Amino acid sequence: FSRVEAGRLEARYCETNIAKHTLELVSNFESMAKSFGLNFIIDIPNHQEFERKLKQKVFLDLDLYEKIVFNLCSNAFKYTWRGSVTVRLYTDIKELKEVVVFEVEDTGVGISPEHLSNLFQRFYRIESHQARSHEGTGIGLALVKELATRHGGDIEVESHVDVGSKFKIWMPTGYDHLPLKNVIIESSGDMHDGIGDNREKHLYSSLDLYLDESKHWIQDEPKFNDISIQQNITLADEQTAIKSLQSLNLSSPITDSITSTSRTSPFLSEKCTDSDKSALILIVDDNTDMRNYLSNVLKTEFKVQCATDGRDALGIIQNKKIHPDLVLSGMY
Ligand code: ADP
Questions:
Q1: Which residues form a coiled coil (predicted)?
Q2: How many Å lie between the centroid of ligand 1 and the Cα of residue 126?
């Protein structure tokens, strides 16, 4: 999001064989479906026929589209305990224009009507004991919406509690709706058709991130009957987060103690001493996204170890005989 907002996320829209590419992306979830005992239905037409039927070619930023697909599929598996997850790709007409629709439907826990209008707001989460994991940041769907908009499209949702949810993103075909300077037209007529493309990676690998997170769900999977059905809303917008940090009055100790030459993060100050590079930080947080994020930011300047909770942290300290200089821990 910060890259999108700072205008630093330069999308590159390439002519793409969307059916072939989508099939490659969603296939990554087959083993997850198997381990959860869910039926995974991939309803994607033959890519040659799909291409023939399109009135105009589809232009995608492969990296951004990958994030859309992985976010929606990953959510479907996170909130579905039995039944199926179905992915579909088809064409439709919106405002008299041809669009391609990528749809993910699940037979999961569903979302009650009062939450639907806020679902695409940043940091909006519905704390549910019915999810496979309580990890989350509430930015996944907001990001998907932003990325669909970047393709001239949008996202829609239909959902019913205890029945399931259907998320649809649609994008117009052709490139009239895209900023022309970011549209790449291959002179050779070559079309991009998969994740094997030798393209520059704009962000971290989504595949590793999403599949890695789901491994924890498999380990931690509780029994469905034990789950109490309880939903609370947590709406932590940026202002609230900033206010809470300010109220802790931590700004001076943080900038004094964390010193770095890193220009990658706005959180680190410019000062640096050589001794910092041998300092060891132990990150303790149960949220995989947060651990990965902090570790990526800090590892350029410090040695970093990660633990999922206090017990894990103590185990690592004892087993690896390490002496962290700083323990960075999320507390609730
Ligand atoms: P996160 O998963 O990090 O909480 P998201 O933006 O991806 O954030 O989702 C926001 C909220 O929408 C989630 O907290 C969850 O309650 C709900 N949600 C998203 N996808 C589904 C789904 N397929 N089924 C049920 N609820 C969902």
A1: none
A2: 7
pLDDT of residue 204: 42
Query: Measured between alpha carbons, how far is residue 79 from residues 22, 59, 169, 221 in Å?
Result: 21, 31, 19, 12
Lowest-confidence range among 91-105, 143-157, 280-294?
Answer: 280-294
Q: Do residues 195 and 21 touch, judged by C-beta distance below 8 A? A: yes
Q: Which residue reads 């479906």 in tokens?
A: 33
Q: What tens digit of pLDDT does each residue of 21-36 get? A: 999 999 999 999 999 9
The rounded radius of gyration (Å) of the Cα atoms in the chain is 22
Q: Amino acid identity of 191?
A: M
**Ligand 1 pocket member 144 (CB < 6 A):** no
Distance 121 CA to ligand 1 centre (A): 11
What contacts 221, CB < 8 A, 6 or more positions away?
36, 132
Rounded-to-integer distance, Cα 127 and Cα 141, Å:
15
Q: Whose CA is nearest to atom 23 of ligand 1?
A: 76
Q: How far is CA 143 from CA 229, 266, 301, in A?
A: 27, 21, 29
Q: Hey, whose CA ends up nearest to atom 2 of ligand 1? A: 136
Inter-residue contact 317 to 275 (CB < 8 Å) = no
Pick from 79, 218, 63, 228: nearest CA to 143: 63
